[in-house]
Design a protein that fits this description.
Blueprint (H helix, E strand, L loop, with lengths): L2 H16 L12 E2 L30 E2 L3 E7 L5 E6 L5 E5 L11 H13 L9 E6 L9 E6 L8 E4 L2 E5 L3 E6 L12 E5 L11 E5 L5 E6 L18 E6 L5 E6 L4 E6 L6 E5 L11 E6 L4 E2 L5 E2 L3 E2 L8 H4 L7 E5 L3 E6 L12 E6 L12 E8 L2 E2 L4 E5 L12 E6 L5 E5 L4 E7 L1
Parallel strand pairs: 15-19
Antiparallel strand pairs: 1-22, 2-27, 3-30, 4-5, 5-6, 6-7, 8-9, 9-10, 10-11, 12-13, 13-14, 14-15, 16-17, 17-18, 18-22, 20-21, 23-24, 24-25, 25-26, 25-27, 28-29, 29-30
C-alpha cells in the first residue's frame, strides 16, 4: 500500500471509530416471531465493527453445546463457504470468495469496505472450485480430498438430481454429469440459465435447491446494493427467489423483496420452502433483524421499501405504498446483523432428542453492529411446521477473547451418519459435530 492510501485508510479508520451507533437492546431482543424494533438511527458514517480474521490456534476448535462433541472433518481448505452431502456420504465443498466487482468499490464507502474485507480475510481471489471430501474408513475425518470441479465462476449452491449435478455460479446455473463415486468431473458445463451478475454484483452468492420431485430448481439471488443505493434499474431480477424449470431453463419469480436470501431448505412437516435472509444495514445496531421464513409463492417480503413487514424505509424514494401494503411479516427473527446464512433442517440428525425437529442456522457474524453479534451456529426448534421458542447455541467460540475471528461459520449440513457439518471460511475447515 502506498503512503497516500495508508494515510487515507488511517483517516477513514479514525472517522469510523468516532462515528456509528451502539446497540441499546440485548442481542436476544432481535430474535423470535416478534422481535423488538426500535426507531431507525442512521448515522453520517455507518458503524463498521469487523472482527479481524486470525484463524484458529493450533489444536483449537469451536466450542460445542453440552452433550455434543466437535472435531475437524477437513482442514487446510481455501475459503470453504457452502456444503452439499451426496447420497453416498461424500461431502462437496464450494471454495469461493467474491468475484471482481469494480463498480461496487467506488467512493469513500467502497474504499473503506475493500480494506475492511481484507482485514476480515475475504479479499483474496476466489479459488473457484468444488472439492469432494471422502471419509474412507468411517472415522469422521475426510482422509481423501479431490477437486471435483475447477475453473468455475464463484460457485456457491449445489444440488444433485438423478445423475445431474447443478451448480450455481455467480452468473449462471450450470449442469454437469455425475455418477455415484465420481471424484472428478471433466465434462463441459451445460448452462441452464443466466443469473444476474455484472460489475456491481453486490450480493454475489447464488444458492440453489431442487424441488422434492426434482422438476424445478429454486435459486436465491441477493440484491445489488444495501437498499437500492444504485437505483432500481440495476436490481432487475435480484432480491428474488427464482423457480427454474430444470428441463427448459425458463424461470419465473417465485418470491421477491428478499434482500439477500442464502440458505434454503424444505421443512419436513409442512413441505414448505424456507430461506435464511440477511437483512439491510446502516440504520442502527439494533436494526434490522435477519430472519428465516417460509416462502409464499408470489410473496413480497419488503425489500427495499419496507422491513419486517410494513415498517417503511424512508431512504427509498419514490416509495411504493402499493407493495408495502402487501409486505409479508417473516416467520422468525434471527438477530440484527448476525449475517444468518446457513440453513439446514435437522431431519436425519443423530444429535439427541432436543435437536430432533428444527433447523440449524450458521451465523457468519456482524460488521454493522456494536457490540458484535452472530459468529456462531444456533438451533431453533420446530413444532407443527413452525419455529418454537428461543434459539439454542450449538457451536460458539468463533470469536477470541480479544474479539478476533478465529473462524466464521457459513454453510451447514447433516451428513449421512447424522452428524452436523459446518463450513468455516476463516478457519478454512469443515467442522463435524456429533453426540457425545
Amino acid at each position: 500500500m502506498n503512503v497516500r492510501s495508508l494515510l487515507s485508510l488511517v483517516t477513514a479508520s479514525l472517522l469510523l471509530a468516532a462515528c456509528g451507533d451502539k446497540a441499546k437492546l440485548p442481542e436476544a431482543a432481535g430474535y423470535g416471531p416478534h422481535p423488538t424494533l426500535v426507531a431507525p438511527n442512521p448515522t453520517l458514517i455507518p458503524t463498521l465493527n469487523f472482527a479481524k480474521a486470525v484463524g484458529w490456534p493450533k489444536g483449537a476448535t469451536p466450542v460445542p453445546a453440552p452433550g455434543l462433541a466437535v472435531g475437524a472433518f477437513a482442514t487446510n481448505l481455501d475459503h470453504p463457504r457452502w456444503l452439499y452431502v451426496l447420497p453416498n456420504g461424500d461431502v462437496l465443498v464450494a471454495e469461493t470468495t467474491a468475484p471482481p466487482h469494480p463498480d461496487d468499490e467506488k467512493g469513500f464507502r467502497g474504499f473503506v469496505a475493500k480494506h475492511v474485507l481484507n482485514i476480515a480475510g475475504a479479499g483474496t481471489p476466489s479459488p473457484n472450485r468444488i472439492l469432494l471430501l471422502r471419509d474412507t474408513n468411517g472415522d469422521g475425518v475426510a482422509d481423501r480430498q479431490f477437486v471435483l470441479l475447477k475453473n468455475l465462476n464463484t460457485p456457491f449452491g449445489m444440488a444433485l438430481v438423478g445423475n445431474t449435478l447443478y451448480v450455481a455460479d455467480t452468473d449462471a446455473v450450470l449442469a454437469f454429469p455425475y455418477h455415484d463415486g465420481d471424484s472428478e468431473i471433466t465434462a463441459p458445463a451445460r448452462k441452464i440459465t443466466d443469473l444476474p451478475a455484472g460489475t456491481i454484483n453486490h450480493h454475489w452468492t447464488k444458492n440453489i435447491v431442487a424441488s422434492p420431485d426434482g422438476n424445478k430448481l429454486y435459486v436465491s439471488i441477493g440484491s445489488n446494493s444495501n437498499v437500492g443505493d444504485n437505483g432500481m434499474a440495476v436490481e432487475e431480477g435480484r432480491a428474488d427467489i427464482w423457480e427454474v424449470d430444470r428441463a427448459t431453463g425458463r424461470h419465473r419469480v417465485f418470491a421477491f423483496g428478499i434482500r439477500n436470501g442464502v440458505g434454503m431448505g424444505w421443512q419436513p412437516d409442512s413441505g414448505k420452502l424456507w430461506v435464511a435472509v440477511n437483512e439491510r444495514d446502516e440504520i442502527g445496531s439494533d436494526l434490522v433483524p435477519d430472519y428465516m421464513t417460509s416462502v409464499q409463492d408470489g410473496g413480497f417480503y419488503g425489500w427495499p421499501y419496507s422491513y419486517y413487514g410494513q415498517h417503511v424505509d424512508i431512504r427509498i424514494q419514490p416509495q411504493r405504498p402499493d407493495l408495502v401494503a402487501k409486505a409479508i411479516v417473516p416467520d422468525y427473527a434471527l438477530g440484527a446483523h448476525t449475517a444468518s446464512l446457513g440453513l439446514a433442517f435437522s431431519k436425519g440428525a443423530d444429535l439427541g432428542q432436543r435437536f430432533a425437529n428444527g433447523v440449524f442456522i450458521g451465523q457468519h457474524g456482524s460488521w454493522n453492529r456494536d457490540p458484535r453479534a452472530g459468529y456462531r451456529v444456533i438451533f431453533v426448534a420446530f413444532k407443527d411446521g413452525k419455529p418454537e421458542g428461543m434459539p439454542v447455541e450449538v457451536l460458539s467460540g468463533f470469536l477470541s477473547a480479544a474479539g478476533e475471528a478465529q473462524g466464521r461459520p457459513v454453510g451447514v449440513a447433516i451428513d449421512r451418519k447424522g452428524a452436523f457439518l459446518v463450513a468455516d471460511d476463516v478457519g478454512n475447515a469443515v467442522w463435524r459435530v456429533t453426540k457425545r
